Every structure is written in C-alpha cells, then in structure tokens.
Amino acid sequence: MRIHKWLNGRKHNSMRVRIMFMFAGELNDWWIDWFLPFFPSKGETFDIIEFVECGIIKDFKDKTFEGCVRYHSIKKSMYDMLFDGYNVEIENIHWCPRHIEIELKSTDYNRDYWKEVNE
C-alpha cells in the first residue's frame, strides 16, 4: 500500500488514464484518475496489483487462463500473472488529447499462447 500512503496529505490535479493489458486475444482495460505528480516511461515495470489493492483500480475482475503450446496444461489467473510487478512492463504509452493510455505486457508469459477459461 505504498502508493496510498504516499498520496495521503498531498493534493495534485488528476489525469485520466486508461491502463490496458492485452492477453489471450482479449483487451482488459481499466480507467483511473492518476494523482501521482510523475508518470512512468516505456520499458519500466508497473505494479498494477498495488493499484488494485489500494482501491485505485476498482473494476478489476480476475480471469483464469489456460496455456497452449509451450504453456500446455498450465492454468493461471490474471491476478497471479500480474502479481509480481517486476514482471509487468509498460509496452507503450499513448498521449491522447483528453487522456493517457498505458499498454502493459507480462515479461514472463507470451500473450499469444493462452486462452481464457470460463469457470
């Protein structure tokens, strides 16, 4: 909860940010208000689960994925894949007129070798 503690007592204008995680052919995205006075760069790691646990990302829904090809017979939840912030990297940043978009990728798992499992 480092982010939450850091934000307490500080007043900053927010930016509207869309966080996107493309995985198994599906776009998972979340809209947040970015209150931090700095912004990450492409290639940096991004601890998205910290944002979920602090309540900044409110609409996170966990999904289960099943591996194909080299990940055959492995099942992982999206939460587990994103849990280690050192293995989630910013792939691209798009500066739009009214908001900013951050594209994330898992550095541990190739996004094309998974399919979503409906449980």
Structure characterization notes:
It is a single chain. This protein is α+β, with helices and mostly antiparallel strands and 119 residues long. The chain has one domain (2-117). Helices cover 15% and strands 37% of the residues. It contains three helices and seven strands, in the order αββαββαβββ. The strands form two sheets. A four-stranded mixed beta sheet has the order 2-1-6-5. The radius of gyration is 15 Å and the shape is elongated. The N and C termini lie far apart (30 Å). The model has no long low-confidence stretch (mean pLDDT 84).
Brief summary:
The chain contains three helices and seven strands, in the order H-E-E-H-E-E-H-E-E-E. It is α+β, with helices and mostly antiparallel strands and 119 residues long. The strands form two sheets. A four-stranded mixed β-sheet has the order 2-1-6-5.
The main sheet orders its strands as 2-1-6-5
Q: Compute the gyration radius: what is it?
A: 15 Å
Coarse shape: elongated
* Separation, N- and C-terminal Cα atoms: 30 Å
* Estimated structural class: alpha+beta
Please provide the ordered H/E string of secondary-structure elements: HEEHEEHEEE
What's the number of domains? 1
Q: What is the average of the pLDDT values? A: 84
Can you count the helices?
A: 3
Low-confidence stretches: none
* Helix content class: 10-25%
In percent, how much strand structure appears in the residues? 35-45%
Number of strands: 7
**Largest sheet: number of strands, sense, barrel closure:** 4 strands, mixed
